Amino acid sequence: MRVPISTKCPFHPLSMGVIGSAYGIYGWVKVFSYTEQITNIVHYQPWFTQREGQWYLLELEKWKKYKNQLIIKIKGIDNRNHVKERLTNYEVIVDSKHLPVLSNDDFYWKDLLGCQVINTEHYVLGKVVQIIETGANDVLIVHANVEDKSYTTERFIPFIEKIVIKSVNIMTRIIFVDWSIEF
Q1: What main location does UniProt list (predicted)?
Q2: What is the pTM of this model?
Q3: 1, 4, 80, 90: which could join 49 in a potential S-S bond, CB 3.0 to 4.6 Å?
């Protein structure tokens, strides 16, 4: 069951997935994870959801991987009607301070948001505002600077390491890319 909380909401909220439809009749739900391996999402606790400005804590009771899906049992959700009424289409949110610390060369997608994107000709293409999955590879959505001479307001740059993405420096917040200003 969703338990409203006001004193323990995530300080740095990060969406890790979304709750889908019911699985069976006993309140299990399908969860679509944004993590690289779908089962990794269960290791990031506690889970929260937010609806109409109110934070709710979700306590995981059990979980299992079924085919290519993650199936979760949440404490207090006991039938498929509860799932539909209380959980379907809610985001699974964690506090990013609970994410494991990575090595120097590794980073989370969230770390790329706001980074400057500069091409090999040292032209500032803009800042990363979003990352989307396309199936083949992820894509950086870069909003151009207002001084951009190409009059492009938004660029879609495929995140293909060593080919398009030449380097990522989280400390300086700069991503170097092999990408023309014409694209």
Answers
A1: cytoplasm
A2: 0.68
A3: 90
